[in-house]
Design goal:
The protein is of the alpha+beta class. 35% of the residues lie in helices and 9% in strands. The chain has a domain of 42 residues. The protein contains two helices and two strands. The protein starts with 27 loop residues before the first strand and ends in a 7-residue tail after the last strand. The model has no long low-confidence stretch (mean pLDDT 88).
Length: 85
Protein backbone atom coordinates (compact mmCIF):
# COMPACT_ATOMS: atom_id res chain seq x y z
CA UNK A 1 0.00 0.00 0.00
CA UNK A 2 1.36 3.43 -0.89
CA UNK A 3 0.29 6.80 0.37
CA UNK A 4 0.73 9.15 -2.54
CA UNK A 5 0.74 12.77 -1.47
CA UNK A 6 0.69 15.69 -3.83
CA UNK A 7 2.84 18.52 -2.57
CA UNK A 8 3.14 21.96 -4.10
CA UNK A 9 5.78 24.23 -2.64
CA UNK A 10 5.06 27.80 -3.65
CA UNK A 11 7.61 30.40 -2.57
CA UNK A 12 7.43 34.15 -2.66
CA UNK A 13 6.40 37.12 -0.59
CA UNK A 14 3.04 37.37 -2.35
CA UNK A 15 2.22 33.65 -2.12
CA UNK A 16 -0.10 34.45 0.80
CA UNK A 17 -1.88 37.39 -0.79
CA UNK A 18 -5.44 37.91 0.36
CA UNK A 19 -7.09 37.14 -2.97
CA UNK A 20 -5.84 33.54 -2.73
CA UNK A 21 -7.92 33.09 0.40
CA UNK A 22 -7.37 29.72 2.02
CA UNK A 23 -5.90 28.05 -1.06
CA UNK A 24 -3.03 26.49 0.90
CA UNK A 25 -3.10 23.84 3.61
CA UNK A 26 -0.04 25.28 5.36
CA UNK A 27 1.61 28.68 5.07
CA UNK A 28 5.01 29.72 6.41
CA UNK A 29 6.52 33.16 6.94
CA UNK A 30 10.30 33.39 7.14
CA UNK A 31 11.39 36.62 8.77
CA UNK A 32 14.82 38.27 8.56
CA UNK A 33 16.00 41.86 8.97
CA UNK A 34 16.05 44.01 5.88
CA UNK A 35 19.85 44.34 5.79
CA UNK A 36 20.32 40.57 5.87
CA UNK A 37 17.76 40.06 3.10
CA UNK A 38 19.60 42.64 0.98
CA UNK A 39 22.98 41.02 1.66
CA UNK A 40 21.62 37.63 0.63
CA UNK A 41 20.11 39.02 -2.56
CA UNK A 42 23.32 40.78 -3.53
CA UNK A 43 25.37 37.69 -2.78
CA UNK A 44 23.13 35.69 -5.10
CA UNK A 45 22.61 38.30 -7.84
CA UNK A 46 25.77 40.40 -7.63
CA UNK A 47 26.28 44.00 -6.55
CA UNK A 48 25.20 45.31 -9.96
CA UNK A 49 21.67 44.25 -8.97
CA UNK A 50 21.58 46.67 -6.00
CA UNK A 51 19.26 49.23 -7.71
CA UNK A 52 16.82 46.46 -8.59
CA UNK A 53 16.95 45.10 -5.07
CA UNK A 54 16.42 48.55 -3.52
CA UNK A 55 13.33 49.15 -5.69
CA UNK A 56 12.02 45.65 -4.99
CA UNK A 57 12.51 45.98 -1.24
CA UNK A 58 10.78 49.38 -1.10
CA UNK A 59 7.77 47.87 -2.91
CA UNK A 60 7.92 44.81 -0.67
CA UNK A 61 8.04 46.93 2.50
CA UNK A 62 4.90 48.83 1.43
CA UNK A 63 3.10 45.62 0.47
CA UNK A 64 3.99 43.84 3.73
CA UNK A 65 2.89 46.87 5.77
CA UNK A 66 -0.49 47.08 4.05
CA UNK A 67 -1.25 43.38 3.50
CA UNK A 68 0.30 41.94 6.69
CA UNK A 69 0.94 38.47 5.22
CA UNK A 70 2.72 37.36 8.41
CA UNK A 71 -0.63 37.51 10.22
CA UNK A 72 -2.14 34.92 7.86
CA UNK A 73 0.63 32.32 8.14
CA UNK A 74 0.46 29.10 10.12
CA UNK A 75 4.14 29.11 11.07
CA UNK A 76 6.68 31.89 11.49
CA UNK A 77 10.40 31.12 11.35
CA UNK A 78 13.47 33.17 12.17
CA UNK A 79 15.37 33.43 8.88
CA UNK A 80 18.56 34.28 10.77
CA UNK A 81 18.64 31.20 13.01
CA UNK A 82 21.89 29.33 12.65
CA UNK A 83 23.74 32.18 10.95
CA UNK A 84 27.30 32.85 12.11
CA UNK A 85 27.61 35.83 14.45
Amino acid sequence: MTNDVDVLHLEGVSATRRELGDAWDVTVWVEAPRDIRLQRGLKRDGHAARPLWERWMADEDRWVASERPRDRCDFIFDGTAGLPA
